[in-house]
Design goal:
The chain is mainly α and about 325 residues long. It is built from 14 helices and no strands.
């Protein structure tokens, strides 16, 4: 009997990992398709915008002959299909090309450090939001501490009504200019010195994502706490903290995983706004400068890398969700 039970457990585990692998391959294929579409759309859009990159680089007083020579040197005189084929050829060789506005500077070398800055702000905001939002959501799950739960709910509604840039300006005024707890802007450029410049922008962005996590986790926790198995656990004499951690928290974590994973794009947009408030050298700065200079390769590089970040986050969300709830992997694969 024990041997048969062991074989059944192994068969179940094998089936689970096979479902996860199929789900991973399906999502990976979708990820590659999204990358191709992002490159194609960015390629077409930046070339439909009026303006000549060569003219922007040389200035308005440049002679037509000089502009034509630089246009030919950059390969912009070729047909669109020829330029698109060259773009995909570079991508297949692992290169995003070189900046037009900054000769000799590769696109990846230019935007990778700034993308890391943006992702650091997002990671800091998520850390704040999860560490504070999840415990706050569990406070009112079993019907205790109603006053605290109502105060937290009201605070979440207020934060949701505040635009991220306005909260950033308030924090900048109070924490930086009045209390001198953090620099008013800038970036150290090395770790761990960057943490001194990071914690306040991360807190500003957490004002956007934190209330969403709190409200989602609170609703899921209250639904889980109303289930019969929670009442049975309390009836068996289990303490409330143990019931919350073992029975309520796992059920409340699933919608939070979905919320975070599928809102990475919104977090990127919010981080760009926060970077402007705190003068951080993030991916938004690269995009604004590239658009102003008609720097096609940098614009396409920013679009591609941010698109890959979003689809990668979605892929990881699907896999994590499938690990927590194996029924997802079997249904989606």
């Amino acid at each position: 009997m024990a041997f048969a039970g062991t074989k059944e457990m192994r068969r179940t585990a094998s089936t689970r990992w096979a479902s996860l692998m199929r789900l991973f391959l399906i999502r990976l294929a979708q990820m590659l398709l999204v990358a191709v579409v992002v490159v194609l759309v960015a390629f077409l859009l930046v070339r439909l915008v009026p303006g000549n990159p060569a003219q922007a680089i040389l200035g308005l007083r440049a002679s037509p002959k000089a502009v034509a020579a630089l246009t030919k040197e950059m390969g912009l005189d070729r047909s669109l299909p020829s330029q698109l084929a060259l773009e995909f050829d570079r991508l297949l060789h692992g290169s995003l090309g070189a900046s037009l506005a900054q000769p000799g500077q590769s696109v990846l070398g230019l935007i990778a450090p700034h993308l890391l800055t943006t992702l650091s702000v997002i990671a800091c905001a998520l850390a704040y939001s999860l560490v504070v939002g999840i415990p706050a959501a569990l406070i009112g799950a079993l019907g205790r501490f109603r006053l605290i739960d109502r105060l937290l709910t009201t605070l979440a509604m207020i934060l949701l009504a505040l635009p991220p840039f306005l909260l950033g300006l308030v924090l900048l005024l109070v924490a930086s200019l009045k209390l001198h707890l953090a620099p008013a802007g800038g970036w150290a450029g090395s770790w761990p010195a960057n943490l001194r410049y990071l914690w306040l922008p991360g807190l500003a962005l957490a004002g956007f994502v934190g209330p969403l996590i709190f409200r989602t986790a609170r609703r899921a926790a209250r639904d889980a706490a109303a289930q019969d198995f929670v009442e049975a656990a309390l009836a068996r004499g289990l303490s409330e903290p143990r019931v919350l951690l073992r029975h309520v928290l796992p059920n409340a974590s699933l919608p939070v995983i979905t919320l975070v994973g599928f809102n990475v794009g919104a977090l990127l947009a919010g981080a760009v706004v926060i970077e402007a408030v705190f003068a951080l050298p993030g991916i938004g700065t690269d995009l604004v400068n590239a658009v102003a200079a008609r720097d096609y390769p940098v614009i396409q590089g920013v679009a591609l890398l941010t698109g890959l970040v979003v689809v990668t986050a979605n892929l990881l969300t699907d896999l994590l969700y499938a690990l927590v709830d194996p029924r997802i992997a079997r249904r989606d694969s």
